[in-house]
Amino acid sequence: MAKDDKIRRSFANKNWQEIKVKDSWQIFKIMSEFVDGFEKLAKIGPCVSIFGSARTAEDHPYYEMTVDIARRLAERGYGVISGGGPGIMEAANKGAYEAEGKSVGLNIELPHEQFHNRYIDRDKLLEFNYFFVRKVMFMKYSQGYIVLPGGFGTMDELFEAITLIQTGKIARFPIVLVGTAYWEGLFDWIKSTMLTHKNISEEDLNLYRMVDTAEEATEHIFRFYDKYLLKPNF
């Protein structure tokens, strides 16, 4: 029995050493994604990121609204960044593409969005293995966020942005939530619970704007940068 325990411990130690070596080499894969992202996105100029569900159908009103939002942004000279997949992401790239604007896709392989959409500029398509690297690119190279209804991934990206602005880790930029009926329950809870328990401040509620039309969404971005000189986040 003691011999068997010794063999098992030896095997476990060997596996642990292999895992540590693999983790060390993984650093270079992570670095390569950062380098590729920095080099490509730094050349593009001011962009607005548009988020939302990969599952939104092409005939859904939110899909059509997203196309309109992206078209309006592109016509004013903003590039549009999406997550590169279908649904709301495709609609964002489609609107920019149709307006002959810059259409950027930060793609990652997921169960519901395995392939990038066809409206991304070929020289502006980036493929990622790591969510955290991809999110850095969204934060670093976006001048604003427009957030359509989505799931956990959309929530992750939204609250990442709010947290970084709240804590002063990045410069403030406009965050627009499209679809009052979809978002108001969540943010009513934030006001009634988080704020009541003093886990956020009253001024934190000013970090986002809730709207219902494409015109309202884009005008909030435009007004922000009419007031504050547009400067890249990088």
Output the keywords.
7-stranded parallel β-sheet, globular, alpha/beta, 234 residues, 12% strand
Write the topology of this structure.
Blueprint: H1 2-41, E1 47-51, H2 61-75, E2 79-82, H3 88-98, E3 103-108, E4 125-128, H4 131-141, E5 145-147, H5 152-166, E6 175-178, H6 180-195, E7 209-211, H7 214-227
Parallel strand pairs: 1-2, 1-5, 2-3, 3-4, 5-6, 6-7
Molecular structure report:
By secondary structure, the protein is an alpha/beta fold. The protein contains seven helices and seven strands; from the N terminus they run H-E-H-E-H-E-E-H-E-H-E-H-E-H. It has helices at residues 2-41, 61-75, 88-98, 131-141, 152-166, 180-195, 214-227, and strands at 47-51, 79-82, 103-108, 125-128, 145-147, 175-178, 209-211. Helix 1 (2-41) runs parallel beside helix 4 (131-141), helix 2 packs parallel to helix 3 and helix 2 runs parallel beside helix 7 (214-227). The longest helix has 40 residues, at 2-41. The protein is globular.
Short description:
This protein is an alpha/beta fold and 234 residues long. It has helices at 2-41, 61-75, 88-98, 131-141, 152-166, 180-195, 214-227, and strands at residues 47-51, 79-82, 103-108, 125-128, 145-147, 175-178, 209-211.
Neighbour order of strands in the largest sheet? 4-3-2-1-5-6-7
Proportion of helical residues: 40-55%
On the 0 to 100 scale, the average pLDDT is 89
Shape: globular
SSE string: HEHEHEEHEHEHEH
The counted number of beta strands is: 7
How many DSSP H or I helices?
A: 7
Which oligomeric form is depicted? Answer: single chain
